[in-house]
Specification:
160 residues; alpha+beta; 7-stranded antiparallel β-sheet; two-stranded antiparallel ribbon; 23% helix
């Protein structure tokens, strides 16, 4: 499962990304500096799923930990959007009150994973070759490609 949201601010991109594989998932905030500028692009990400915690630079690669490069107002907006995105789009296997989600998944022969798309949102997805996918109108696939190419996991996080 791979999901993200982002928003543009001048030449920069701010967002949040979650990816689950097997019994592990990774979630982090990110900033792509100078994405829409004719200057060097940098991909920053939070080391943990904490916009105010330590960050690192994934592109160009470094192991240094830094403070969040995003301005304070961007951090507040990221936190607000992440909360809303998770509430509206995702559920976790250990969330309380997910019985209806689990039933809907079972009725359609879809296994419940550690991180899942809420059933009411599945109508926005397209199933092709056994895979479900969906994208918001106007998404810049170059952003997704950059994240897929350069995103580094410092370590996998066991499911909660």
């Amino acid at each position: 499962m791979f999901a993200l949201f982002y928003y543009e601010s001048n030449a920069d991109i701010y967002g949040w990304h979650i990816e689950a594989k097997g019994h592990y998932f990774s979630a982090a905030f990110f900033m792509i500096e100078n994405f829409y500028a004719n200057r060097a692009t940098r991909l920053y990400r939070s080391i943990e799923d904490d916009v105010y915690g330590q960050w690192t630079i994934d592109y160009p690669p470094t192991r240094d930990e830094i403070r969040c490069p995003a301005p304070e107002e961007a951090c507040h907006e990221l936190e607000r959007l992440q909360s809303r995105f998770v509430e509206e789009w995702l559920f976790f296997q250990d969330d309380p009150n997910i019985a209806a989600e689990v039933i809907a998944y079972r009725e359609h022969g879809i296994p419940v994973q550690e991180v899942n798309i809420r059933w009411r949102r599945m109508n926005r997805m397209e199933k092709r070759n056994g895979l479900w996918s969906g994208m918001a109108t106007g998404i810049d696939l170059n952003i997704v490609e950059l994240l897929r190419k350069y995103w580094r996991l410092s370590e996998k996080v066991p499911a909660r």
